[in-house]
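Recall that a protein's primary structure is simply its ordered list of amino acids. Everything else, from secondary elements to tertiary packing, is in principle encoded there. The following example makes that idea concrete.
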Amino acid sequence: MNFDPSQITLLYELSLANTRHYKPIDNARQFVNKLLSRKALSSGVVWLFDGFQGDQLICKVLHAMPDLRSTNVLNADFIHEFFTDNLVISAHSIFGKDIDRGYYAYFKLNDIGFLELFSDDESKLSLKSLNPLRDVVNQLAISLEIGFSYQNLQEEIRQRKKAEESLRTNEEKYRNIINNIKLGLLEVDNDETITHANQSFQDLVGYTLPELLGKNASALLIDESDKKAQALLRKENKKRTAGESNSYELSIKDKQGNKKWAVISGAPNYDSKGDQIGSIGIHLDITEQKKLIEEYVFKDTRSKKLFDISLDALISIDAKGVIFEWSRQAEEIFGFSIHEAIGKTLSETIIPNQHRQAHNNGMKHYLKTGEGPVLNKRIEITALRKNGEEFPVELTIFPLEFNDKHFFTAFARDITEI
């Protein structure tokens, strides 16, 4: 199963948020504000069921972002009919008042109320986007129940402790997910001192946890000669200190001094008082991908160099005969500059009039049958220079198929003097 590093980070942060506050208002505030910020939603409200008025169920706001001081009523039977699942997506407000035109999502918070989310972007409130949040929203419901029980009913202490154990178990579940997926987790304090690293991160850098704990992350993992990486890390750490989450590619060094590459999804880390105590980074190892890219760039650079210094003219065309590659030697032999040749057909440039019909027929035949009598062999034929001079050339044409498209590359040599 593939995991989105930013999604895992969000789940981890929301799971931590659920364990940090006993006051329901504080718990709801941190959860909703964190969720809206990371998911870029327009608004969120935690509604509580607050008794009955006749057959109407009174709903009041526990926390809303943006601020909303309101009380609404709902038919009690309607609530049971509406929440066929603990997550419901709707194009209309549950209260039937579409003040905000857009899309709504409702999470049932057990029997105490529900979480309402709003966005004008339908994709942000799809089932695919919100299904991963079910567990942490359930944690929120449990946290709120704990808070109200702790505030109002001493006899509910036993139930509160049971719920706290459930929260710790769920937090451990996400901790285990992070520890076991192939993504490295690193936690540091505000001075970049390492406070935790999962097994995948240890495998990435080659250090054991005791070797990592207490060390400065930059000093240990960034090559002191890699000024670019040091500057990038300072820039991203500054953003994180300002409370921003970010994603970026960074080169690091392992215990043996080998260069590694990782995509880092980072976020600030806060204590129970809301004070920033450091940051959390999820690391995706992309070292092999970087090597492949470097190899590709090298081969491409080498090919272009050979393309430029070849004594033969090198010309590439697409299935319509349109030129898209024209080497320097082609300029020398045929007289057309690269700007004059690119985008034109061979028939418009270098094929003599008496050969044009055969050329067009040969292209059509190959595209239909995959056969070409002059392909992959050396032939002698005449060609045209820009000045209209017809002269003999030695020609070799190679077909190429890529992404279900056909291309042709030809090597041509002027044999006038031979």
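The mean pLDDT is 84. The chain has 15 helices and 16 strands.
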